[in-house]
Amino acid sequence: MKKRERLEIIYDILVLINKNHNQMKPTPLLRKSNLSSSQFEKYILELIEKDFIEICAVDSKKYYSLTKKGFEYINKYRIILKIIEDFDL
């Protein structure tokens, strides 16, 4: 099994949030991201710091949701994947 690269992990986390109606609780996101808790925390903090995701509270429950920058990352990453596929790289 191939080890995921940093940019792929970021993409995977953002896509998970997006597929969950742009609202995902921390624990399910941790489980589905397939990372250790320490790795997960590191990525989440970086994504918040770089304004890819934000923390939202709904009925006193914490959720992560994408910012405009997070959506842009997903779209641009998909373009890169398409280029890689088109050129069989």
Automatic annotation (TrEMBL):
Annotated ArnR1-like winged helix-turn-helix domain residues: 3-82
InterPro entries xrefs: ArnR1-like_HTH (IPR038723), WH-like_DNA-bd_sf (IPR036388), WH_DNA-bd_sf (IPR036390)
Source domain of life: Archaea
Pfam family, one: HTH_45
Gene3D superfamilies per record: Winged helix-like DNA-binding domain superfamily/Winged helix DNA-binding domain (1.10.10.10)
Protein name: ArnR1-like winged helix-turn-helix domain-containing protein
